[in-house]
Amino acid sequence: MPEFIELNCVDLSEPDLNKSVSLLKHACLDCGFFYLVNHGINLDFMDEVFSQSKKFFDLPVEEKMKVLRNEQHRGYTPMFDQTLDPDNQVGGDYKEGYLIDVEVPKDDPPAQRFFYGPNLWPSKDLLPRWRETMEKYHRECLDVARLVARLIALALNLEARFFDKPEMLGEAMVTLRLLRYEGKASNPEKGIYGAGAHSDWGFLTLLATDDVFGLQICRHKDAQPRVWEYVAPLRGAFVVNLGDMLERWSNCIFRSTLHRVVSNGQERYSIALFVGPSHNCLVECLSTCKSDSNPPKYPPVKCETYLRQRYMDTHADLSLYNHKTG
């Protein structure tokens, strides 16, 4: 069994708000990862979400391909569809996934934008409770993420509801991604990974995992050689990490940390909720995070522009699937 990094544990039921903010701030300054416990989502329900996720991935590949991801990045992502670390990977990530976002009807104007539109859903005949389960989990996780965002705001010396504004997380882009990692053992020396090294792109991520270890983080991404540390699974908890948008907002005070999945030869399931600012949000250095001696390190960037580029850089072109299935 490998050695695991010790992460701070933030308890949403803790009555001492200052204690929670202090623990969160220390984690955000140190490694950008922490556990979140007593978050209010029922453990039996989380088990049901994992059970429903496995039922989808157990379907024949031809059924899964009927809901292949579309141009709005909803639906099934096959094995090797994503390559998160192209400089060091061979053949893409050894994982398959399913993307679910905020539901936007096809005839609504926002549906014409990148990332927006109706979700894709598997057949009710095959998976009768699947959609309802995933939509409920999406809603409940977003509620948790908003509570964490308020702790983050306080840790950055902002008003607690600073990120609740419509142009920020009030109309957030929120992607639920179900993931199944194939039981092939990773081999970093040969460029084989469950998921290649990357930082998340949005504001924050809530990750639930099964009891199979595999997630690693690198606290010092500029160090050579990089040192990777395992994060232990913790039943019923979320592993929370910060994304690039928050690193830019905080002027690198809070860290969007490199992480990857190194599979140990066991099949592994995880479920991530990626929370990003609204489509039109202009992300620029916060007033509390800059000074004459510490000017902004990044220029302002529109959230949609940044996320779109990251998706295009790491995902296979959909025309490849059209060619194969046409």
UniProtKB/TrEMBL annotation:
Residues 171-277 form the Fe2OG dioxygenase domain. GO terms for molecular function: dioxygenase activity; metal ion binding. It comes from the Eukaryota. Keywords: Iron, Metal-binding, Oxidoreductase. The keyword Iron applies. InterPro entries: DIOX_N, IPNS-like_FE2OG_OXY, IPNS-like_sf, Oxoglu/Fe-dep_dioxygenase_dom. Belongs to the iron/ascorbate-dependent oxidoreductase family. This is Fe2OG dioxygenase domain-containing protein.
